[in-house]
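Morning!

This is the sequence you dropped in the shared folder:
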Amino acid sequence: MNKQYNLGSFYLLLALAALVGYAIYSNINHMWLVAPPNYILLLGSLCILVLAIKGLKYKENRLARIRSWITVAFSSLLSLALIITVIVTFLASTMGASVHIKTASSPDESYTLEFYRWNAGAAGSLGIRGEINGALWTKKRFYYQVNKEDVNITWEDENTVTINNHTLQLDKGETYGY
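The structure's back. Tokens below.
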């Protein structure tokens, strides 16, 4: 059984690292975010850490011992990074960094748009950000405008929306401000 813990935790760690890497990449490039929320990734990382610690008992060969210690080390680092990310995200959300201002659905309800107002306070500027909600937890940022506090939305048809006098074709993946 310890062999399964050893191998399983290693492969799960690789999969989780790929999800975390894609989450970072999609946030930087404003693509569809398909990775689960950070707290789900943290839960997975902690489970992998427990499995990796159980897998330390498997000492059949040198490669297995090295793999066990690598898995424990990287899952510990990943868990620590995700704990910091969850705490920073929580603190930023409680300090009013981003406030939900409007939800709009397309006429055929194939698109759900969420708009948020962000304000950096005295140290920065303010503006609005729009996100398209997908299935489950997937979302994509598609609208970003600085020095604006409210949003005016008009649907031209099922796929075309005008936001603050900026027309976007959502079916073609058009964005504004990104």
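Headline: Residues 98-172 form one domain.

More detail when I'm at my desk.
O.
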